[in-house]
Amino acid sequence: MTSEGGAPGAGSTDGRRAVVVGGGISGLASGVALARQGWTVTVLERAPSLEPVGAGIAIAPNAVRSLAALGIAEQLRDLSALQGEYGIRRADGGWLVRTDAQEAGSLFGDRTLVLHRAHLVGLIADALPAGSLRTATSATVVEPGTDGRAARVSTSDGDLEAELVVAADGIGSATRTRWWPDAPSPGPADSTAWRFVAPAVPGVVGSESWGRGVVVGVMPLADGRVYCYVSVAHAAGVPRDLDELRDRLAGWHDPIPALLAAVDPGTVLRNELRALPAPPPSLAVGRTVLVGDAAHAMLPNLGQGGCQALEDAVVLGARVHPGPEVPAALLRWSQERRPRVEHVMRLSARIAGPTLWTSPVLTGARDVGMRLAGRWGAALGARALRPVMSWRPPA
Ligand SMILES: Cc1cc2nc3c(=O)[nH]c(=O)nc-3n(C[C@H](O)[C@H](O)[C@H](O)COP(=O)(O)OP(=O)(O)OC[C@H]3O[C@@H](n4cnc5c(N)ncnc54)[C@H](O)[C@@H]3O)c2cc1C
């Protein structure tokens, strides 16, 4: 993974300097997209190295095309794509919604890929120009570049001036808090999530299974290992540790108990889920923009947080070029991106709703409704997802 040290230069470089705060998926992808359009990019990441948290990640067709637009197409061929039948199951394994990966692939124009986060972050970081990533560098946007001024970013190594600042500093974005003081803050989602990669077990079919306030996702990776996520609504009573989680899911369908039994406890991530209620009214202030979770942290139920971050980056590269028009181009970028990310945030929240239900009556009615809807229901779901998944990067 690329990781360059060294002191940043203080001044602006020939009107093409773009500074990116944050080296997660959105910051790295923004750096690649801008560098491809002639910007001199510096990506500042406060962590000492790129050690991405989060076990696996699903990359939906819209984001597969975004990665291709960043020049990361060749490497995608080797990654695992969802295959055969997949869909939503009950805790006992009965199918509530069943679909076929090939069919979905033709409907949305590409397949959904599942890969280890470290793999994705490594692919994007390797596409950055050499020397453009500075780890162990905490950064603060001290001037967003309003009223014709250059933007300024203060770092632990000195200050940087920039014609463009991309704030990709995640859900807790200090840039958002400081320069978007009226923006809504992240709120709790009343749910706890576990993520891990388990060793290979035979007969794994990609699926998400819904119980009473519990969701379990199972997704095979290209190397045979299995990416799993579990979310438990607080109302369902949150297991205190992995052993309690194993006990809670002991009666669930195969291979869930076996995957939980096989995982190394030291590799299991646990997070309280949070999300922004909406993106700020504008994603641009002067020469500074918010991207990724800093702009639109959403519930993970649609698996689109990282995908939208990749879209942000690709559209930024396509629409904002070095020159006198940067602030106006950033406003137009915001007008293009904001309605889309708000739609995806809302859709994610709508899908999350019934997964938090714990009442046997409500979840029973939910399951019967989904089963009765059958293929018609799956087609309706696909229709709702189509505008999200069929998105294509600007030419
Ligand atoms: C349980 C779960 C499952 C998910 N599954 C999926 C999925 O399958 N598909 C999908 O697309 N999305 C998924 N997501 C969402 C996805 O993980 C996020 O949307 C994505 O990682 C956001 O990336 P980011 O770069 O915007 O933010 P982050 O990953 O939070 O990166 C922000 C970076 O900025 C750095 N930083 C912060 N402040 C500073 C500073 N002052 N100076 C320098 N650096 C700084 C941080 O160290 C960090 O590296 C999931 C999320 C969760 C919680």
From TrEMBL:
According to the entry, every stretch annotated as the FAD-binding domain falls at 18-347
Q: Which UniProt keywords apply?
A: Monooxygenase, Oxidoreductase
Q: Which SUPFAM superfamilies match?
A: FAD/NAD(P)-binding domain (SSF51905)
Catalytic activity, EC: 1.14.13.113
Tell me which Pfam families the record gives. FAD_binding_3
What InterPro entries does the record tag this protein with? Answer: FAD-bd (IPR002938), FAD-dep_Monooxygenase_BioMet (IPR050493), FAD/NAD-bd_sf (IPR036188)
Enumerate the Gene3D superfamilies for this protein: FAD/NAD(P)-binding domain
- An example molecular function term from Gene Ontology annotations: FAD-dependent urate hydroxylase activity
The highest taxon in the source lineage is: Bacteria
Does the keyword Oxidoreductase feature in the UniProt annotation? yes
- What this protein is called in its record is FAD-dependent urate hydroxylase
Q: Organism source for this protein?
A: Isoptericola dokdonensis DS-3
- Gene name of the record: hpxO_1
